[in-house]
Every structure is written in C-alpha cells, then in structure tokens.
C-alpha cells in the first residue's frame, strides 16, 4: 500500500515486477484512495497480509481493520523521530558523515530519519537528478509549508539553515537547531523534512532516557568504538531497528522480511 502521490510507482508499468518479467496476474496493482481501496484491502477476509508505509494515524486504522476482519498479518512502517547517538569515543568524521546522510537523504522525507543529530559540512541543494546535488525539493507545496511552519515556530537557536533555498520551487536549506528544550515541537514531533535538533547528554543513562522520550519507536543509531556500550545502548532503545556506526539506509527488514 503506497501513498496517493506515488503515482509513477503505482502504475503497472512502474512496478518492479513489470521489469522483472513476472507473468500477468502474478503481481496486481490497485490504485485508489485510502478510505476506499485501502480500507477494502485492510478489511477483506481473504487478504492474509498487509504491509504499509505511511503515517501513524493510518497505520492504526489498518491495524484496527485487520483485527476486526480476519486477524490478518500486518507489517507497518510508520512515523519516527529517530535519535542518532554519538559518544565521545566515536569516529567523529564517520559519525557526522553518516548522521548527515541519515537525516538529509531524500530531503529529510523519511520516517526513519535520524532527526535528533548534528552535522558540520555543507550540502548542495538543487536538481535531485544532478550528480553533484545531495538534496532536492520537498515533494509538495503543502509539505514545504508544513516544514517551514515547524522551522518558524522552532523557538530555539538556528545553527544553520532555517529558511527556504532560493525563490522558486519547494527547496528548504538543511536546518539544525541547538539549545532546544524537550517541550518544543521540533524535538518530539515528526517533521518529515531536512530539519534536526542537537541535544546534549551527560552519560549513557541520560541519553537512553532522552532518546526514549518520544511517542515513536521506529529507528535509532549509535556511534561509538566501544562495542559493549553500542550493544547495551541499542538493546535499551525503544526502537524497532538500531544501527551501529552507519546510516542504516538500505537495511530495512533483511532476510526476515521474506519469511513474514
């Protein structure tokens, strides 16, 4: 189940199965709105499995529909406010590079984005198809306006960015907030854009407490050269996936996804 704006992928010709040479009927593409097509799939008693990537609100509705129908198996990848934890002994250059990639890749429009981190180097904004461009525009004007509203109401110190890039298109400069307070919306709400916050911590206990202080629990990252510290922290984080010394991009589910 994909969002309504992913119209290219939702077309039969855009499906990977089309290019893989599957026979007609093996993989079927249904298009429609969530309250019609999506609801029918989630509620149908002959559908045994639903996998969905999207908002937490819609994920709850799918889970409810699955429970009311035939208790079908459900896999959900919903919202996130992922922490990237960088300890004192971490390889700073590696940590910063991966942390930057983890939040600003795909223009920050990822539910697994590590939006509580920091970065130091500059990134080029522009045509996402150009080889030297790292960050492109936001997908829609409504998303651009939503992200800008978070930035404008941040109520914290803007370290870099904090404004649109250029006068045309939906481009937003990579933005980092410092001196934030846990009560601020930019700290605990998913922005789904190139915006992150830098949060200081005292020790391992303190950072685990702060990292788990969120309604989400999708993904997290830990950067340290101490393997015991890395494993202990990763196991105690309330996150479905924890990456160690990497961005985690391209590592969702693994082999287990094929058996569920």
From TrEMBL:
PROSITE patterns: ALDEHYDE_DEHYDR_CYS. GO terms for molecular function: oxidoreductase activity, acting on the aldehyde or oxo group of donors, NAD or NADP as acceptor. Residues 20-252 form the Aldehyde dehydrogenase domain. The keyword Cytoplasm does not apply. The keyword Cell membrane does not apply. InterPro entries: Ald_DH/histidinol_DH, Ald_DH_C, Ald_DH_CS_CYS, Ald_DH_N, Aldehyde_DH_dom. GO terms for biological process: acetate biosynthetic process. Keywords: Oxidoreductase. It comes from the Eukaryota. Belongs to the aldehyde dehydrogenase family. This is Aldehyde dehydrogenase. It comes from Suillus plorans.
């Amino acid at each position: 189940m994909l969002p309504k704006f992913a119209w290219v992928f939702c077309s039969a010709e855009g499906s990977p199965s089309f290019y893989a040479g599957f026979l007609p009927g093996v993989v079927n593409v249904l298009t429609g709105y969530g309250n019609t097509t999506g609801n029918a799939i989630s509620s149908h008693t002959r559908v045994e499995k639903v996998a969905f990537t999207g908002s937490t609100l819609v994920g709850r509705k799918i889970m409810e529909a699955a429970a009311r129908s035939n208790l079908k198996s459900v896999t959900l990848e919903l919202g996130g406010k992922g922490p990237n934890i960088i300890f004192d002994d971490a390889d700073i250059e590696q940590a910063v590079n991966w942390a930057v990639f983890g939040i600003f890749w795909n223009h920050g429009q990822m539910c697994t984005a590590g939006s509580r981190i920091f970065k130091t180097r500059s990134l080029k904004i522009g045509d996402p198809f150009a080889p030297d461009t790292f960050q492109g525009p936001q997908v829609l004007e409504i998303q651009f306006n939503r992200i800008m509203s978070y930035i404008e109401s941040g109520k914290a110190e803007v370290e870099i960015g904090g404004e649109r890039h250029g006068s045309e298109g939906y481009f937003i400069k990579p933005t980092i907030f410092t001196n934030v307070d846990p009560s601020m919306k930019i700290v605990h709400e998913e922005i789904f854009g190139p915006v992150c916050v830098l949060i200081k911590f005292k020790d391992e206990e303190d950072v685990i407490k702060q990292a788990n202080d969120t309604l989400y629990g999708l993904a997290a990252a830990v950067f340290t050269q101490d393997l015991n510290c890395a494993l202990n922290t990763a196991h105690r984080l309330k996150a479905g996936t924890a990456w160690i010394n990497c961005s985690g991009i391209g590592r969702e589910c693994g082999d287990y996804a094929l058996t569920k």
